[in-house]
């Protein structure tokens, strides 16, 4: 991949959208499980980039991934239609499932996880999504969300405890 343009040159938002659009889409899709909603989030992220340009972005991939996850969580809360959501666990994708019963189990777990995540605080949902759905490192999460690494660890711990209380062992079995 080539380097993205300098931030906010006259064509920078367009070039950033071309360069990082697929990354933003994938992050939104992992949270939402719906391609049309993920495309809407992708457009929202880049529209906001034009309307409110950020300052001093150290890492465009980390910044845009976090923005996509935040917007996708917001969209998910607005929709409140959990039955439309698809699985989030990469390791248990339906294509890898052995039977239709396995696919149904994965779908049900994903639906329950998304419903439980909607009850987390925004920061807990963001940290959990960035860490366990996007595979982002703790230091990167802290930098992107402008919090300390200790706060990140505590927030992840609280999110996992709340999800485990709601879902039982499903979080422990699937979250790395």
Low-pLDDT stretches: 81-94, 172-176
Examine the secondary-structure arrangement and name the CATH architecture of the largest domain. Orthogonal Bundle
How many strand elements? 0
Give the topology string: H per helix, E per strand: HHHHHHHH
* Residue share in β-strands: under 5%
Structural category is mainly alpha
**What is the number of helical segments per DSSP (H or I, 4+ residues)?**
8
Shape: globular
What count of domains describes the coordinates? 3
**What assembly state would you assign to the polypeptide chains in this entry?**
single chain
**Overall CATH class of the largest domain:** Mainly Alpha
Question: Could you state the CATH homologous superfamily of the largest domain?
Answer: RNA polymerase sigma factor, region 2, helix turn helix motif
Percentage of helical residues? 55-70%
The CATH topology of the largest domain comes to Rna Polymerase Sigma Factor, Chain: A
Largest sheet, strands/sense/barrel: none
């Amino acid at each position: 991949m080539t380097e993205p343009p300098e931030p906010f040159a006259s064509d920078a938002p367009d070039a950033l959208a071309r360069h990082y659009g697929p990354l933003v889409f994938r992050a939104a899709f992992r949270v939402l499980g719906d391609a049309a909603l993920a495309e809407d989030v992708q457009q929202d992220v880049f529209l906001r980039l034009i309307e409110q340009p950020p300052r001093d972005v150290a890492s465009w991939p980390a910044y845009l991934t976090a923005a996509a996850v935040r917007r996708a969580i917001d969209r998910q809360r607005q929709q409140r239609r959990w039955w439309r959501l698809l699985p989030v666990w990469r390791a248990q994708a339906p294509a890898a499932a052995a039977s239709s019963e396995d696919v149904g189990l994965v779908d049900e777990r994903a639906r329950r996880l998304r419903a439980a995540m909607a009850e987390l605080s925004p920061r807990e949902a963001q940290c959990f999504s960035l860490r366990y759905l996007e595979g982002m490192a703790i230091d990167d999460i802290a930098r992107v969300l402008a919090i300390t690494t200790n706060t990140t660890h505590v927030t992840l711990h609280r999110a996992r405890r709340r999800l485990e209380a709601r879902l039982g062992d499903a979080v422990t079995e699937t979250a790395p």
